Protein backbone atom coordinates (compact mmCIF):
# COMPACT_ATOMS: atom_id res chain seq x y z
CA UNK A 1 0.00 0.00 0.00
CA UNK A 2 2.79 2.43 0.85
CA UNK A 3 4.47 1.68 -2.48
CA UNK A 4 1.28 2.47 -4.34
CA UNK A 5 0.99 5.80 -2.53
CA UNK A 6 4.58 6.70 -3.41
CA UNK A 7 4.07 5.79 -7.07
CA UNK A 8 0.84 7.80 -7.12
CA UNK A 9 2.62 10.81 -5.65
CA UNK A 10 5.46 10.50 -8.17
CA UNK A 11 3.04 10.21 -11.09
CA UNK A 12 0.97 13.06 -9.70
CA UNK A 13 4.01 15.33 -9.57
CA UNK A 14 5.03 14.24 -13.08
CA UNK A 15 1.54 15.06 -14.33
CA UNK A 16 1.76 18.48 -12.69
CA UNK A 17 5.16 19.08 -14.33
CA UNK A 18 4.14 17.61 -17.70
CA UNK A 19 4.90 20.86 -19.53
CA UNK A 20 8.57 20.73 -18.52
CA UNK A 21 9.29 16.98 -18.58
CA UNK A 22 6.66 15.00 -20.48
CA UNK A 23 9.08 12.31 -21.60
CA UNK A 24 10.22 11.63 -18.01
CA UNK A 25 6.55 11.28 -17.04
CA UNK A 26 6.06 8.76 -19.86
CA UNK A 27 9.00 6.62 -18.72
CA UNK A 28 7.78 6.67 -15.10
CA UNK A 29 4.26 5.76 -16.24
CA UNK A 30 5.50 2.83 -18.33
CA UNK A 31 7.45 1.53 -15.35
CA UNK A 32 4.28 1.80 -13.23
CA UNK A 33 2.33 -0.13 -15.88
CA UNK A 34 4.58 -3.14 -15.23
CA UNK A 35 3.66 -3.18 -11.51
CA UNK A 36 0.62 -4.92 -10.01
CA UNK A 37 -2.78 -3.27 -9.79
CA UNK A 38 -3.86 -0.64 -8.87
CA UNK A 39 -0.46 0.88 -9.67
CA UNK A 40 -0.67 -0.36 -13.27
CA UNK A 41 -3.95 1.49 -13.79
CA UNK A 42 -2.39 4.70 -12.51
CA UNK A 43 0.53 4.16 -14.89
CA UNK A 44 -1.82 3.71 -17.85
CA UNK A 45 -3.62 6.99 -17.09
CA UNK A 46 -0.30 8.81 -16.59
CA UNK A 47 1.01 7.42 -19.91
CA UNK A 48 -2.00 8.89 -21.73
CA UNK A 49 -1.28 12.27 -20.18
CA UNK A 50 2.41 12.01 -21.08
CA UNK A 51 1.70 11.07 -24.73
CA UNK A 52 -0.73 13.97 -24.99
CA UNK A 53 1.80 16.35 -23.40
CA UNK A 54 4.56 15.29 -25.80
CA UNK A 55 2.40 16.27 -28.77
CA UNK A 56 1.30 19.56 -27.22
CA UNK A 57 4.44 20.85 -25.49
CA UNK A 58 7.17 19.19 -27.54
CA UNK A 59 7.68 18.57 -31.23
CA UNK A 60 6.05 15.97 -33.47
CA UNK A 61 9.35 14.06 -33.49
CA UNK A 62 9.28 13.64 -29.71
CA UNK A 63 5.60 12.70 -29.83
CA UNK A 64 6.24 9.82 -32.26
CA UNK A 65 9.27 8.67 -30.25
CA UNK A 66 7.10 8.51 -27.15
CA UNK A 67 4.39 6.69 -29.08
CA UNK A 68 6.91 4.09 -30.29
CA UNK A 69 8.27 3.45 -26.80
CA UNK A 70 4.79 3.19 -25.27
CA UNK A 71 3.54 0.95 -28.08
CA UNK A 72 6.42 -1.50 -27.67
CA UNK A 73 6.01 -1.68 -23.88
CA UNK A 74 2.24 -2.07 -24.02
CA UNK A 75 2.38 -4.65 -26.81
CA UNK A 76 4.96 -6.77 -24.95
CA UNK A 77 2.96 -6.46 -21.75
CA UNK A 78 -0.32 -7.51 -23.34
CA UNK A 79 1.10 -10.40 -25.35
CA UNK A 80 2.84 -11.74 -22.28
CA UNK A 81 -0.24 -11.65 -20.09
CA UNK A 82 -2.22 -14.83 -19.29
CA UNK A 83 -5.42 -13.26 -20.64
CA UNK A 84 -4.37 -13.84 -24.25
CA UNK A 85 -3.56 -17.51 -23.84
CA UNK A 86 -7.28 -18.25 -24.14
CA UNK A 87 -7.39 -17.23 -27.80
CA UNK A 88 -7.23 -20.27 -30.03
CA UNK A 89 -5.78 -18.41 -33.00
CA UNK A 90 -2.69 -16.24 -32.49
CA UNK A 91 -3.91 -13.80 -35.12
CA UNK A 92 -6.93 -13.02 -33.01
CA UNK A 93 -4.70 -12.29 -30.04
CA UNK A 94 -2.50 -10.01 -32.16
CA UNK A 95 -5.51 -8.10 -33.50
CA UNK A 96 -6.88 -7.66 -29.97
CA UNK A 97 -3.49 -6.39 -28.79
CA UNK A 98 -3.22 -3.94 -31.67
CA UNK A 99 -6.67 -2.53 -30.96
CA UNK A 100 -5.87 -1.99 -27.30
CA UNK A 101 -2.43 -0.53 -28.03
CA UNK A 102 -3.98 1.85 -30.58
CA UNK A 103 -6.51 3.06 -28.06
CA UNK A 104 -3.91 3.31 -25.30
CA UNK A 105 -1.12 5.03 -27.27
CA UNK A 106 -2.12 6.28 -30.72
CA UNK A 107 -5.28 8.17 -29.71
CA UNK A 108 -3.67 10.41 -27.03
CA UNK A 109 -0.66 10.94 -29.33
CA UNK A 110 -2.85 12.12 -32.23
CA UNK A 111 -4.93 14.34 -29.95
CA UNK A 112 -1.75 15.92 -28.56
CA UNK A 113 -0.30 16.43 -32.03
CA UNK A 114 -3.51 18.07 -33.27
CA UNK A 115 -3.80 20.45 -30.33
CA UNK A 116 -0.06 21.11 -30.26
CA UNK A 117 -0.02 21.76 -34.00
CA UNK A 118 -2.81 24.29 -33.66
CA UNK A 119 -1.00 26.03 -30.81
CA UNK A 120 2.29 26.11 -32.72
CA UNK A 121 0.47 27.45 -35.77
CA UNK A 122 -1.20 30.16 -33.68
CA UNK A 123 2.15 31.09 -32.12
CA UNK A 124 3.69 31.29 -35.59
CA UNK A 125 0.86 33.57 -36.74
CA UNK A 126 1.30 35.80 -33.70
CA UNK A 127 5.08 35.94 -34.22
CA UNK A 128 4.56 36.77 -37.90
CA UNK A 129 2.10 39.52 -37.01
CA UNK A 130 4.57 40.96 -34.50
CA UNK A 131 7.35 40.84 -37.11
CA UNK A 132 5.12 42.62 -39.64
CA UNK A 133 4.21 45.24 -37.03
CA UNK A 134 7.88 45.83 -36.24
CA UNK A 135 8.71 46.09 -39.95
CA UNK A 136 5.83 48.53 -40.45
CA UNK A 137 6.98 50.66 -37.52
CA UNK A 138 10.53 50.58 -38.84
CA UNK A 139 9.38 51.63 -42.31
CA UNK A 140 7.29 54.41 -40.77
CA UNK A 141 10.24 55.68 -38.71
CA UNK A 142 12.47 55.51 -41.78
CA UNK A 143 9.93 57.40 -43.89
CA UNK A 144 9.55 60.04 -41.17
CA UNK A 145 13.33 60.36 -40.90
CA UNK A 146 13.71 60.72 -44.67
CA UNK A 147 10.93 63.32 -44.79
CA UNK A 148 12.48 65.28 -41.93
CA UNK A 149 15.81 65.20 -43.75
CA UNK A 150 14.19 66.43 -46.96
CA UNK A 151 12.36 69.22 -45.14
CA UNK A 152 15.52 70.25 -43.30
CA UNK A 153 17.42 70.31 -46.59
CA UNK A 154 14.78 72.47 -48.29
CA UNK A 155 14.50 74.82 -45.30
CA UNK A 156 18.27 75.21 -45.17
CA UNK A 157 18.49 75.98 -48.89
CA UNK A 158 15.73 78.58 -48.69
CA UNK A 159 16.74 80.31 -45.46
CA UNK A 160 20.52 80.11 -45.86
CA UNK A 161 20.59 81.40 -49.42
CA UNK A 162 18.02 84.14 -48.89
CA UNK A 163 19.49 85.48 -45.65
CA UNK A 164 23.08 85.35 -46.91
CA UNK A 165 22.24 87.32 -50.05
CA UNK A 166 20.16 89.80 -48.05
CA UNK A 167 22.95 90.35 -45.52
CA UNK A 168 25.54 90.86 -48.26
CA UNK A 169 23.31 93.26 -50.20
CA UNK A 170 22.43 95.17 -47.04
CA UNK A 171 26.09 95.59 -46.11
CA UNK A 172 26.84 96.76 -49.65
CA UNK A 173 23.92 99.18 -49.61
CA UNK A 174 25.05 100.60 -46.26
CA UNK A 175 28.56 101.14 -47.59
CA UNK A 176 27.18 102.81 -50.72
CA UNK A 177 24.91 105.06 -48.68
CA UNK A 178 27.82 106.19 -46.51
CA UNK A 179 29.78 106.97 -49.65
CA UNK A 180 26.83 108.89 -51.10
CA UNK A 181 26.48 106.54 -54.09
CA UNK A 182 23.26 106.70 -56.05
CA UNK A 183 23.08 102.87 -56.30
CA UNK A 184 22.19 102.33 -52.65
CA UNK A 185 18.38 102.40 -53.21
CA UNK A 186 18.73 99.83 -56.00
CA UNK A 187 20.67 97.52 -53.68
CA UNK A 188 17.96 97.83 -51.05
CA UNK A 189 15.32 96.97 -53.64
CA UNK A 190 17.23 93.80 -54.42
CA UNK A 191 17.27 93.03 -50.69
CA UNK A 192 13.50 93.38 -50.60
CA UNK A 193 13.04 91.23 -53.72
CA UNK A 194 15.22 88.48 -52.27
CA UNK A 195 13.33 88.60 -48.97
CA UNK A 196 9.95 88.38 -50.72
CA UNK A 197 11.06 85.39 -52.83
CA UNK A 198 12.44 83.55 -49.81
CA UNK A 199 9.33 84.34 -47.77
CA UNK A 200 7.07 83.02 -50.55
CA UNK A 201 9.01 79.75 -50.71
CA UNK A 202 8.94 79.46 -46.92
CA UNK A 203 5.18 80.01 -46.77
CA UNK A 204 4.61 77.41 -49.46
CA UNK A 205 6.71 74.83 -47.60
CA UNK A 206 5.10 75.59 -44.23
CA UNK A 207 1.65 75.39 -45.82
CA UNK A 208 2.38 71.88 -47.06
CA UNK A 209 3.63 70.84 -43.62
CA UNK A 210 0.64 72.32 -41.80
CA UNK A 211 -2.04 70.71 -43.99
CA UNK A 212 -0.74 67.94 -46.27
CA UNK A 213 -4.27 67.19 -47.53
CA UNK A 214 -4.86 70.73 -48.75
CA UNK A 215 -4.17 71.45 -52.43
CA UNK A 216 -0.67 72.84 -52.71
CA UNK A 217 0.11 75.97 -54.61
CA UNK A 218 1.89 74.83 -57.76
CA UNK A 219 5.11 76.82 -58.04
CA UNK A 220 7.48 75.72 -60.79
CA UNK A 221 10.67 74.10 -59.56
CA UNK A 222 13.94 75.63 -60.72
CA UNK A 223 14.73 74.66 -64.31
CA UNK A 224 17.78 75.06 -66.53
CA UNK A 225 17.02 78.71 -67.37
CA UNK A 226 16.80 79.57 -63.66
CA UNK A 227 20.47 78.68 -63.23
CA UNK A 228 21.43 81.71 -65.33
CA UNK A 229 19.19 83.92 -63.21
CA UNK A 230 20.75 82.42 -60.07
CA UNK A 231 24.22 83.34 -61.35
CA UNK A 232 23.03 86.86 -62.13
CA UNK A 233 21.66 87.22 -58.60
CA UNK A 234 24.99 86.29 -57.06
CA UNK A 235 26.75 88.72 -59.36
CA UNK A 236 24.40 91.43 -58.09
CA UNK A 237 25.38 90.40 -54.57
CA UNK A 238 28.98 91.24 -55.41
CA UNK A 239 30.60 87.93 -56.34
CA UNK A 240 33.06 88.16 -59.26
CA UNK A 241 31.50 85.21 -61.04
CA UNK A 242 32.75 83.54 -64.21
CA UNK A 243 30.14 81.09 -65.47
CA UNK A 244 30.88 78.50 -68.17
CA UNK A 245 28.40 76.12 -69.78
CA UNK A 246 29.40 73.05 -71.78
CA UNK A 247 26.83 70.96 -73.62
CA UNK A 248 23.08 71.14 -74.11
CA UNK A 249 20.64 72.59 -71.55
CA UNK A 250 19.67 70.34 -68.70
CA UNK A 251 16.46 68.35 -69.17
CA UNK A 252 13.96 66.68 -66.85
CA UNK A 253 12.67 67.79 -63.45
CA UNK A 254 15.26 66.26 -61.12
CA UNK A 255 18.63 67.08 -62.68
CA UNK A 256 18.02 70.83 -63.19
CA UNK A 257 16.65 71.11 -59.64
CA UNK A 258 19.64 69.28 -58.13
CA UNK A 259 22.11 71.32 -60.20
CA UNK A 260 20.37 74.56 -59.22
CA UNK A 261 20.43 73.74 -55.50
CA UNK A 262 24.03 72.56 -55.54
CA UNK A 263 25.24 75.70 -57.33
CA UNK A 264 23.08 77.82 -55.02
CA UNK A 265 24.52 76.24 -51.88
CA UNK A 266 28.12 76.35 -53.15
CA UNK A 267 27.88 80.05 -54.04
CA UNK A 268 26.06 80.84 -50.79
CA UNK A 269 28.99 79.30 -48.94
CA UNK A 270 31.40 81.45 -50.98
CA UNK A 271 29.35 84.53 -50.14
CA UNK A 272 29.36 83.59 -46.46
CA UNK A 273 32.95 82.41 -46.01
CA UNK A 274 34.85 84.27 -48.76
CA UNK A 275 32.83 87.38 -49.69
CA UNK A 276 35.96 89.24 -50.91
CA UNK A 277 37.28 86.43 -53.07
CA UNK A 278 38.85 87.98 -56.20
CA UNK A 279 37.49 85.28 -58.52
CA UNK A 280 34.76 82.64 -58.45
CA UNK A 281 34.46 80.10 -61.29
CA UNK A 282 31.34 78.01 -61.99
CA UNK A 283 31.42 75.34 -64.67
CA UNK A 284 28.34 73.34 -65.70
CA UNK A 285 29.03 70.47 -68.11
CA UNK A 286 26.31 68.30 -69.64
CA UNK A 287 28.20 65.18 -70.72
CA UNK A 288 26.87 62.02 -72.33
CA UNK A 289 25.92 60.15 -69.18
CA UNK A 290 26.61 62.58 -66.34
CA UNK A 291 26.38 66.20 -65.23
CA UNK A 292 29.56 67.77 -63.83
CA UNK A 293 29.36 70.89 -61.68
CA UNK A 294 32.53 72.64 -60.53
CA UNK A 295 32.51 75.70 -58.26
CA UNK A 296 35.86 77.15 -57.20
CA UNK A 297 36.82 80.39 -55.52
CA UNK A 298 40.16 81.98 -54.86
CA UNK A 299 41.14 82.65 -51.29
CA UNK A 300 39.64 85.64 -49.52
CA UNK A 301 42.44 87.99 -48.39
CA UNK A 302 40.43 88.82 -45.25
CA UNK A 303 38.21 85.79 -44.57
CA UNK A 304 35.50 86.23 -41.94
CA UNK A 305 35.36 84.06 -38.85
CA UNK A 306 34.30 80.54 -39.76
CA UNK A 307 30.70 79.71 -38.81
CA UNK A 308 28.18 77.01 -39.66
CA UNK A 309 27.68 73.34 -38.89
CA UNK A 310 28.22 71.90 -42.38
CA UNK A 311 24.54 71.21 -43.06
CA UNK A 312 24.76 72.73 -46.51
CA UNK A 313 27.51 70.32 -47.55
CA UNK A 314 25.46 67.43 -46.13
CA UNK A 315 22.46 68.58 -48.14
CA UNK A 316 24.53 68.76 -51.33
CA UNK A 317 25.81 65.22 -50.79
CA UNK A 318 22.27 63.98 -50.20
CA UNK A 319 21.02 65.59 -53.40
CA UNK A 320 23.89 64.10 -55.39
CA UNK A 321 23.36 60.66 -53.82
CA UNK A 322 19.69 60.68 -54.89
CA UNK A 323 20.93 60.81 -58.48
CA UNK A 324 23.67 58.24 -57.99
CA UNK A 325 26.34 60.93 -57.89
CA UNK A 326 28.90 62.30 -55.48
CA UNK A 327 30.29 65.53 -54.04
CA UNK A 328 33.94 66.35 -53.50
CA UNK A 329 34.46 69.52 -51.47
CA UNK A 330 37.55 70.90 -49.81
CA UNK A 331 40.46 73.35 -50.01
CA UNK A 332 42.41 73.61 -53.28
CA UNK A 333 46.18 73.40 -53.58
CA UNK A 334 46.51 76.93 -54.88
CA UNK A 335 44.29 78.30 -52.12
CA UNK A 336 40.59 78.87 -51.87
CA UNK A 337 37.82 76.29 -51.86
CA UNK A 338 36.24 74.06 -54.44
CA UNK A 339 33.16 71.89 -54.91
CA UNK A 340 32.96 69.19 -57.58
CA UNK A 341 29.59 67.47 -58.09
CA UNK A 342 28.87 64.57 -60.43
CA UNK A 343 25.24 63.60 -61.16
CA UNK A 344 24.33 60.41 -63.05
CA UNK A 345 21.70 60.77 -65.75
CA UNK A 346 20.51 57.16 -65.58
CA UNK A 347 19.44 57.68 -61.96
CA UNK A 348 17.26 60.70 -62.77
UniProtKB/TrEMBL annotation:
Give me the reactions it catalyses. ATP + protein L-histidine = ADP + protein N-phospho-L-histidine
GO-annotated molecular function: ATP binding; phosphorelay sensor kinase activity; protein dimerization activity
The UniProt record lists the Histidine kinase/HSP90-like ATPase domain at 257-336
Q: Enumerate the transmembrane spans.
A: 27-55, 62-81, 87-115
Keyword match Acetylation: no
Q: What is its EC number?
A: 2.7.13.3
Q: Which domain of life is it from?
A: Bacteria
Question: Into which EC class is this enzyme placed?
Answer: transferase
Q: Which GO terms describe its cellular component?
A: membrane
* Coiled coil spans: none
Which residues belong to any copy of the Signal transduction histidine kinase subgroup 3 dimerisation and phosphoacceptor domain? 147-212
Name the UniProt key words of this record, in alphabetical order.
Answer: ATP-binding, Kinase, Membrane, Nucleotide-binding, Phosphoprotein, Transferase, Transmembrane, Transmembrane helix, Two-component regulatory system
| PANTHER family in alphabetical order | NITRATE/NITRITE SENSOR PROTEIN NARX-RELATED, NITRATE_NITRITE SENSOR PROTEIN NARQ
**What's this protein's name?**
histidine kinase
- Species source reads Microbacterium sediminis
